[in-house]
Amino acid sequence: MAAKPKTAKPETTEVTDTATETIKATTEQVKGKIDQALKAFEDAGASSKETYEAFVSSFNITVKGFEGVSAETAAYTKKAVEDLVAVSKSVVGAKSLREVVDIQNDYTKAAFDNFLAFTNKIGEMTVQFTQEAVEPVSRQLGTVFKKFAQPVA
């Protein structure tokens, strides 16, 4: 004789349905949270890449700034040596002690003025390339802080 299929009692069906609905709801919530976490990791990865690129850009600006300062320093040094050689020749060719003192005074004043002009120029160059170098990093970090300061939906 064929076995008669058993039918579930109404209470069992209700518990099974409730459990199934609870599992589905929990699964959807967990899936949603996992999707949010994955999105956050993707955003963090993209932000890390953009932050790295900002630091590289900043480094390149800094290197170019130092190259400019080095070139300016080399030019100043070359001119200072040339001026010193010219003054030395003038002193050797001087006809009196008064002329030597005047040549030396003129040289000292010119050398000091040239040094002040050089240091001012180097200072301005340094401030300018420092501001330019800080800008990409500052902009990127501001973007990152804004993005990650927002509450997760």
What do these coordinates show?
1% of the residues are buried. The chain is rod-shaped and about 125 Å long. It has helices at 10-92, 97-149. The chain is built from two helices and no strands. The protein has a single domain (27-148), classed as Helix Hairpins, CATH 1.10.287. Helix 1 runs antiparallel to helix 2. The two termini are 60 Å apart. With 153 residues, it is mostly helical. Helices cover 89% and strands 0% of the residues.
- Annotation, overall tally of beta strands: 0
**Proportion in helices:** over 70%
Mean model confidence by pLDDT: 83
For the record, the CATH class is Mainly Alpha
Secondary-structure arrangement, i.e. CATH architecture: Orthogonal Bundle
The first-to-last residue Cα distance is 60 Å
Spatial extent as radius of gyration: 38 Å
Q: What structural category arises from helix and sheet content? A: mainly alpha
**Which regions contain 5 or more consecutive residues with pLDDT less than 50?**
none
Count of domain modules: 1
Element-by-element helix/strand order: HH
Blueprint of the fold:
Blueprint lengths: L9 H83 L4 H53 L4
Short description:
The protein has 153 residues and is an all-alpha fold. The chain is 89% helix and 0% strand. The two termini are 60 Å apart.
Please name the defining characteristics of this protein.
2 helices; 89% helix; 153 residues; mainly alpha; 0% strand; Helix Hairpins
